Amino acid sequence: MQSSEKHMKLELASLDPAFRVKQLANYGAMVDVDPNVPPRRYYRSGLEMVRMANVYLAEGSLENAYILYMKFMTLFLEKIRKHPEYSTVPLDVKSVNQVKLKEVMPKAEKLKQRLFDQYTREHARYKDFEAKRKIAEEARRKQEQEDAKLAQILQADENRQDGSATGPHLMNTDNWAVTPSAPPVDGVLYPDDFAKEPSQAPLNQYKSVPPPIPPKPVQENVISDVFPPLAGGLRTVVVPATLMGRFLTIAASNTAKNIELCGILAGRLEQNQLKITHVIVPKQSGTADSCSTNNEEEIFHYQDQHNLITLGWIHTHPTQTAFLSSVDLHTQCSYQLMMSEAIAIVCAPKYNETGYFALTPDYGMQYIAACRQTGFHPHPNDPPLFYNVTHIRLDSSSPIEMVDLRR
């Protein structure tokens, strides 16, 4: 485990348990409703939100589950009612949502208590850890003081030895004749006192002192099971390597006619990774540079039956390179507003290109969400509105199911 991660765990555990739970609830309340996104899309996204939360809960990722439950409740108990088209939402759609709310609210309350209990245990271990650390630090400080005193004694002894050895050479001893064994007289040192090497007993006595026993290091695993902090980055989207080739096969007849084809990327959440498992090709209409879906209810019904969440979309550019047009940017914005990790895959068979794109989170999303133009229209290129995503992973072993609803 890296030191930065350990430090963050310690910081989290040091916080008051109630404060940590409150932070999660605040994060879950950070939901905004874009009046330009149809409310029906929010209702669809809400169901997928609950599906992901249930997966997180089953996998033991309690914090992520709690945040998603809170987002769902904030969205449909408060925010969605402010949408200008809220009154147009069919009653049957609202009723399904109400059933989910009754299911989610007690789950969130129980989860809140579980998190509080977990944080309380972590905080207790943190306090125990800090007490042991302070004891070890005090022992280390005392040992350093004792070592410093010992060093001073040794240095003083060496200074005395050096001063005694050089003192007699300052005297004239040519005519002295003193019995070698004569002891000092009246405290005055005579030359014969140095006939032998001065005793090293005192110095050896100090040098033979065993080195100080270092304090027992503080155990690093005292709170090693502290729940890791919420991931700050985007979750990985796993893309089956065969997906693009199989989609191009389905699109071949359209490509031959110079007509775009689009599909919905759907899948599941597993171990905090979003895995694309299905490409749903809906009934649609297309041109050489655009395509639009028809009868979205069929898509929703299929996803509900197979417990799938929307992870983005894919479409062809029969005669152009792989990029996002102005219309594509608005389409991608609607997906990315629902899920930050949503991607757009563009296949350009004429140029043998495949692009994996998303709107830039620091500029593109805000710019396109605020743009009210429709159809093809110019957008500035600098700063860039979209980029080649890095949060995807091509997997040659992942299967993909192609679902063609046009048949």
- H/I helix tally: 10
In helices, the fraction of residues equals 40-55%
Characterize the biggest β-sheet.
9 strands, mixed
Strand content: 5-15%
CATH topology of the largest domain: Methane Monooxygenase Hydroxylase, Chain G, domain 1
Unreliable segments of 5+ consecutive residues: 165-231
Task: Give the overall shape, derived from the CA principal axes.
Answer: elongated
CATH superfamily caption of the largest domain: Phosphotransferase system, lactose/cellobiose-type IIA subunit
Let me know the average pLDDT: 84
Computed CA radius of gyration, to the nearest angstrom = 37 Å
| Computed structural class | alpha/beta
What is the H/E order? HHHHHHEHEEEEHEHEEHEEE
| Main CATH class of the largest domain | Mainly Alpha
* CATH architectural arrangement of the largest domain: Up-down Bundle
Number of domains: 2
Task: Write a short abstract of this structure.
The protein has 407 residues and is α/β, with parallel strands linked by helices. It has two domains: 207 residues, Methane Monooxygenase Hydroxylase, Chain G, domain 1; 168 residues, Cytidine Deaminase, domain 2.
